[in-house]
Amino acid sequence: MTNVSTTTSSELPALREPGVGGGLLDVLRWRFLLRLLVRKELRVRYRGSVLGLLWSYVKPGMQFLVFYIAMGVFFELNKGTQAYAVYLFSGIVAINFFNEIFGNATRSVVLNADLVKKIYLPRELFPVSMIWVACVHLLPQVVILMGGAMLFGWHPGPLNLLAGLVALVIVALLALGLGLLFSAVNVLFRDAENIVDLFLMVATWASPVLYTWDRVESNVPHWVWLLYQCNPLTAAVELMHYCFWYPATNESTALPPNLPLWSLLAVAVSGVAIGIGQLVFSRLQGRFAQEL
């Protein structure tokens, strides 16, 4: 008769509550699935499309044209701002990056309801995947921006390029933090999508994308100016200006005062957004399958 060995309790793997993971850290362990989600999102988005990824050039190009005619020509901002085209488009690139991540991340869990209800996987994968999808669309815009800046004599140094990278990191962190928060709330209350749409509409005007920072400083109370500077998108857009527009104009008074300090604050605020977003997401994700 064969002896059956028994496993002691000390040899058993530690049990953990189902559906509870390591949050954003789990994304690193599920990198392969993250790549699949990104590919799936891109295929679904351009299924049946004639232009496909060329829309990454057409949409920002049309947006730039409308804003340039309205603000640059009609309001004559192009006369008071050197290389206004570069100034405008560098801000558009940053704000589009934010809008795409935040907007799509908010809808990501609901749009992947079938996966959420059928299998367990880190739910954070859905909002995080939208960062990489946005990066696919960001690349052609940056290429166009670099080409346009070169026409105006763009000669960036290492600090300028670093500023551009920091700007994109700030935007990605802030958008992901808010995306985690609102994607979780959106599962319970679909009104969250409409709130985010309003937020995205205001975001373009609440940062120096279409106008220069000194117009805000000279027309609002000082406390409003400080609040405006606390907006991480304000620092991110100005860092993009420092990366692409400033090396093409070299205006010594073109940048807002204390930009490095405001940039550090923007990084801190974005980090807090990540923490709050992850906390709310973790608390609510246990209800996702039931609510969906």
Automatic annotation (TrEMBL):
It is found in: Cell inner membrane; Cell membrane. PROSITE patterns: ABC_TM2. Residues 51-284 form the ABC transmembrane type-2 domain. Keywords: Antibiotic resistance, Cell inner membrane, Cell membrane, Membrane, Transmembrane, Transmembrane helix, Transport. Pfam families: ABC2_membrane. GO terms for molecular function: ABC-type transporter activity. It is a multi-pass membrane protein. Its main location: membrane. The keyword Membrane applies. InterPro entries: ABC2_TM (IPR013525), ABC2_TM_bact-type (IPR047817), ABC_2_transport (IPR000412). GO terms for biological process: lipopolysaccharide transport; response to antibiotic. Belongs to the ABC-2 integral membrane protein family. This is Transport permease protein. It comes from Oryzihumus leptocrescens.
